[in-house]
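[Discussion] Sanity-checking designs against the backbone

I'm trying to build intuition for which residues belong where. Below is a structure token string of 646 positions. I'd appreciate it if someone posts a full sequence so I can compare it with mine line by line.
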């Protein structure tokens, strides 16, 4: 696949949506890009980082989303077009800054915030819809409906940002961000960025008003005036369109991924002559004249969007103010239960909604085909549980935590966080995690639990976080815990990368996003400087790690820290050979007769260990086993052995 900066204007290239957005940012002439990794948005910055030096732009994985957007705003203030990217959870982190930058204005050059939403929460703790933030804070919002728009909307949005002196938001969803499609490339301009911070004037103010980068209440009025001007601009936006008959039986109003799904559904139903589609690419401020014109075409209107009924609510509220002489539409969507405000949108869901509104029949497959599907034996459909990779150090870490808490005997528990280790909610981590909210919340909750001894609470509390999460949002919680003598143990699973989202660097790693040497910020030095007791251990040394955990748990006063340090197996195997050759002695493996309840395959559950029902023995899956050697330490019969590779 070509890099996103391929010099081939006019050619068609196959990009995922995130790559298309990154290409669009290059065609817009950005000089700055910053982000915190989060699926489904991560590839935007990763793609830009690969070409940053060649294109003379600065790219940064920031410590968290708030720092990313504040740093990006500084570039805008100094006259450099800047892009900031994050997932919808990150938008929650930056709300405080967003609510002030709209009252201070941006710089001479545009500032665009790209937010990736995750309907169905494929890699998230929630499926929050980010669109209402734009309406709440009066920030212009666009959403691409296909891959070409994912690219083309970027230069368009920078022009809007600069013309009206405001930050703008582009919203995407998982199926646009990660699906792949052809895009026609434009030219990448050669921009000699010159940064200088100086006073300039708000282009949207009714009088010459200097931008001081300081929010003020009188600018709130300017922002409302600005939004009305942008509304007029959006009326003629090329990213809004109507397709279909002049007077359809049903008008679909949609945006984003709903545009593609709606077209698929209408085609499948062969209803092109009955259904019209209003596709909106500019969602806020709403292009009211265009919307009103399209509403007059049909009596029935169906809203197709994911996840929340954002357009549905905005347009129904708008329509409620029409004069009594205006057409009164029948609106369908979430409020009529034709669509859900949760989970992902699919063509089948759209078809079901359309057939429900128009009362028409549709059979996706003939009856004979469905009979054949139902006749397929279930043993050919294998269940695959979420689990850690073979050789993942997290499995060993949670094994040690589990055993230490059991040895302590006071019914201790783990507060969790966001990362690969989230899977400790289930069998992969032996069901150890009991809470799971947002990044940093595990340590925050541990602070609270650790102060409840005065009310008779005596359970040990262990907060488990990742190394990237530690820098992102844990340090304030640890400061709070040490200062207030809160009783909990913080476990930092340091695998040397932001592993869940693609191994991006963080302040504890040796390279920046652009591959340059970085100042490694020692997490143990930070913790010790705060005043916490710190122990560093290798989770693959199960005996020592368990003993260390038990000692920390029993300390009973003040926040303390265990750093379980072992490189992520997917990172290690790119640099090193496998350390061991693993074997199972069939004479020693007693199978169901062992009395261990098949500890290796039923409880420890490393994917590199498999159960052979024919022989009644455990076996090593040599295809996926990473030969880490940990399973040799958990077999009570010593049937699993490791031989060092020389």
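Best answer:
Here's mine. Compare freely.
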């Amino acid at each position: 696949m070509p890099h996103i900066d391929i010099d081939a204007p006019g050619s068609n290239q196959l990009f995922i949506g995130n790559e298309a957005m990154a290409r669009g940012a290059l065609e817009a002439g950005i000089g700055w890009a910053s982000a915190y990794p989060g699926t489904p948005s991560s590839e935007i910055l990763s793609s830009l980082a690969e070409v940053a030096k060649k294109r003379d732009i600065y790219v940064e994985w920031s410590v968290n989303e708030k720092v990313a957007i504040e740093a990006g705003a500084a570039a805008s203030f100094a006259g450099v077009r800047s892009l900031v990217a994050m997932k919808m959870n990150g938008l929650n982190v930056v709300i405080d800054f967003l609510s002030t930058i709209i009252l201070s204005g941006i710089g001479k050059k545009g500032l665009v915030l790209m937010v990736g939403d995750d309907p169905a929460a494929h890699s998230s703790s929630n499926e929050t819809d980010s669109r209402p933030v734009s309406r709440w804070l009066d920030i212009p919002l666009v959403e691409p409906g296909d891959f070409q728009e994912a690219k083309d909307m970027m230069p368009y949005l920078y022009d809007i940002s600069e013309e009206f002196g405001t930050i703008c938001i582009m919203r995407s969803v998982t199926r646009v961000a990660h699906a792949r499609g052809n895009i026609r490339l434009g030219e990448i301009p050669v921009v000699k960025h010159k940064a200088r911070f100086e006073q300039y004037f708000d282009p949207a103010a009714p009088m010459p008003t200097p931008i001081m980068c300081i929010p003020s209440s009188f600018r709130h009025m300017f922002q409302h005036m600005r939004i009305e001007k942008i509304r007029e601009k959006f009326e003629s936006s090329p990213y809004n369109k109507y397709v279909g008959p002049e007077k359809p039986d049903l008008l679909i109003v949609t945006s984003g991924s709903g545009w593609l799904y709606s077209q698929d559904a209408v085609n499948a139903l062969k209803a092109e002559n009955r259904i019209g589609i209003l596709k909106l690419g500019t969602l806020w401020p709403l292009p009211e004249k265009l919307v009103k014109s399209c509403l007059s075409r049909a009596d029935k209107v169906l809203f197709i969007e994911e996840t929340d009924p954002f357009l549905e609510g905005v347009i129904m509220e708008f329509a409620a103010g029409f004069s009594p002489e205006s057409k009164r539409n029948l609106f369908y969507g979430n409020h009529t239960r034709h669509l859900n405000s949760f989970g992902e949108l699919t063509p089948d869901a759209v078809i079901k909604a359309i057939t429900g509104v128009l009362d028409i029949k549709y059979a996706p497959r003939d009856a004979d085909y469905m009979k054949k599907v139902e006749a397929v034996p279930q043993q050919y459909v294998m269940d695959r549980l979420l689990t850690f990779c073979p050789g993942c150090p997290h499995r060993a870490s949670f094994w040690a935590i589990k055993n230490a808490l059991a040895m302590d005997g006071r019914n201790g528990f783990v507060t969790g966080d966001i990362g690969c280790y989230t899977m400790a909610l289930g069998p992969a981590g032996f069901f150890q995690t009991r809470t799971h909210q947002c990044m940093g919340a595990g340590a925050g909750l541990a602070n609270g639990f650790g102060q409840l001894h005065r009310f008779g609470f005596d359970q040990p509390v262990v907060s488990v976080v990742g190394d990237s999460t530690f820098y992102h949002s844990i340090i304030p919680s640890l400061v709070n815990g040490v200062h207030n003598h809160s009783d909990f143990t913080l476990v930092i699973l340091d695998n040397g990368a932001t592993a869940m989202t693609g191994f991006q660097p963080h302040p504890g790693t040796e390279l920046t996003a652009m591959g340059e040497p970085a100042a490694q910020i020692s997490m143990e030095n930070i913790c010790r400087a705060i005043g916490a007791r710190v122990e560093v251990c290798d989770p693959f040394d199960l005996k020592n790690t368990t003993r260390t955990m038990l000692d920390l748990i029993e300390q009973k006063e003040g926040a303390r820290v265990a750093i379980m340090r072992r490189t992520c197996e997917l990172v290690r195997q790119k640099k090193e050979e496998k350390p061991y050759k693993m074997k199972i002695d069939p004479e020693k493996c007693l199978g169901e007769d062992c009395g261990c309840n098949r500890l290796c395959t039923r409880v420890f559950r490393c994917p590199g260990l498999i159960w052979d029902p024919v022989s009644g023995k455990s076996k090593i899956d040599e295809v996926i086993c990473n030969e880490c050697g940990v399973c040799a330490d958990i077999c009570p019969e010593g049937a699993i052995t490791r031989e060092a590779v020389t």
